[in-house]
Amino acid sequence: MLPRAIKRLLHQATLSDQSYRFMFGRAPDDEFVAIDCETTGLNVRMDDVVAIAAIKIRGNRILTSEHFAAVVHPDKEIGAEAIKIHGLRRSDVEAAPIVWKVLPRFLHFIGTRPLIGYYVDFDIAMLDKYILPLVGIELPNERIEISRLYYERKYGGAPPNTSIDLSFAAILRDLRIPLLGQHDAFDDALMTAMMFLQLRDMAERGVRIARQRTSPVFNPTGA
Questions:
Q1: pLDDT tens, 90-101?
Q2: Vertex 145 angle, CA 167 and 57, to 5°
Q3: Residue 32 is assigned to a structural domain of this protein
Q4: How many domains are there within the chain?
Q5: Is 21 a member of any domain?
Q6: Could you tell me the residue range of the domain that residue 201 belongs to?
Q7: pLDDT tier at 221 (50, 70, 90 boundaries)?
Q8: How sure is the predictor about 217, in pLDDT bands with cuts at 50, 70 and 90?
Q9: Whether the Cβ atoms of residue 56 and residue 67 lie closer than 8 Å to each other
Q10: Under the phi-then-psi rule, with left for phi > 0, alpha for psi from -120 to 50, and beta for the rest, what region is 161?
Q11: Whole-structure pTM value
């Protein structure tokens, strides 16, 4: 894997639309963007984005008034399983703009800020398949993975064979964050932002998330 600095230089060199050079500027101090996408499925190559949300974080504040949210019209039909997850039917996206129409506004919104997400690589891969032909590069922003931050606070240094649960529900439960309308892009981005601030604060204070102790197995032989 190329070092991030070298990859960033390559991105700058291959930028096809110079109006997007702002993507390589200096990120604002202590600012981040929590993102989430809803899709027609989990196959990056075959499926499409149907909703995008992003919320700015500045310092220890979640700026819900400074957010981006868009429902988009996918080329691919929305399958029944995907509808069960995010609730968006064909009729809900029929009049929505195509993703190419909303991407410029999204890119200006996120700017150079690090992007925070729950399995953020998937969301960015889904976006990159549209951004690459539009701009000529993939998103160069730093990525922050919520499940990794959570793993470090709860399971870092755990003994072998520890049962590990990195589910969204487990993170909400351990951090005592209320469940909003999960699988709604804006609500998922908002919960992700709350997770990030709590986990960052815990890391700064050296606080760990308690793991359930495993009771020793009684052996009548005393071995």
A1: 656 666 888 899
A2: 110
A3: yes
A4: 1
A5: no
A6: 28-205
A7: very low
A8: very low
A9: yes
A10: left
A11: 0.84
